[in-house]
Amino acid sequence: xxxxxxxxxxxxxxxxxxxxxxxxxxxxxxPGLARxxxxxxxxxxxxxxxxxxxxxxxxxxxxxxxTFIRKAGGGEVGGIQACGxxxxxxxxxxxxxxxxxxxxxxxxxxxxxxxxxxFDTLPDAASFTALMQRSGVNQDxxxxxxxxxxxxxxxxxGTRLYWTLKYFGHDNVALLDGxxxxxxxxxxxxxxxxxxxxxxxxxxxxxxxxxxATLDEVAAMSSNGxxxxxxTPEYYLGLRYKSDKVKAPGHIDGAKNLPFSLYIKESxxxxxxxxxxxxxRVATQLGIALDKPTISHCNTGHLASSGWxxxxxxxxxxxxxLYDGSMNEWAALSRPISxxxx
Length: 342
Description:
- The protein is an alpha/beta fold.
- The chain folds into two domains: 36-185, Oxidized Rhodanese, domain 1, CATH 3.40.250.10; 209-338, Rhodanese-like domain (Oxidized Rhodanese, domain 1).
- Helix content is 32%, strand content 17%.
- It has a five-stranded parallel β-sheet. The protein has a five-stranded parallel β-sheet with strand order 10-17-16-11-13, with helices on both faces.
- Helix 7 (152-167) crosses helix 12.
- 42% of the residues are buried.
């Protein structure tokens, strides 16, 4: 008669060990073994992140890496200096526990095209893959992008990384609404110093051309589609312009103005997006079609990423592109520019 193996023998078999580890992972004993969670949407709030802190990879985008590393001195209140936070995160210090630092210059690079110096452009796939790997990102990682969050331009740093991840094929990603400033204002824990995320296995799996507008596509869209300019009205109407990056004032001929200040509520304690229904209402009143093929532009493609994020990810229009060259390229090539309200 063949005896049935004891339960202890079953557990010591290779299959038994695998089943045991799987059960422990699901139970939370070895959370690193569990399958990556699915991000619930393009935006997550601070409470959601706090509840899932050990299940996601946090990528923190900064212009000044020292604000990620050092602790602010003199009057620090929950990670925000009492004197207030600056547009580049200068008044905020520290980062969410476990976050990996992503320097802005690594995701927005300079290059020359036909003698024109272009700013804040898309990195190549190999460079971006290397950045994600040394930031601890795996192919199946659930990613939450954090920014200083103390200004709209800081939020746009995050939407630019979000767009870049989507462009290279990674969809399980969200932006932390309010960023580190909101996290800090709620007296949640901050860390200081350089993080050591380890090496990930992430690889760029696609280059989604449908998310990136070429010069020719912009030219065609200006006559038979919809272009939005997300800069503030004084830049849109040509009262001011950044002469170090843009050769002429105004906007791409035919573009409509959807200023970033009308969909991002700026606050030193966490700049957040307005409710979707309010963004829809305001955009419609400005003559923006919510379901029409759209290209978003600004000076260099930085703020334009927030317009892409709003139209595509929050309002659900899947036919939206980012013009990486924006006014930087368009004006340098003497393409049609307008200073009129359109």
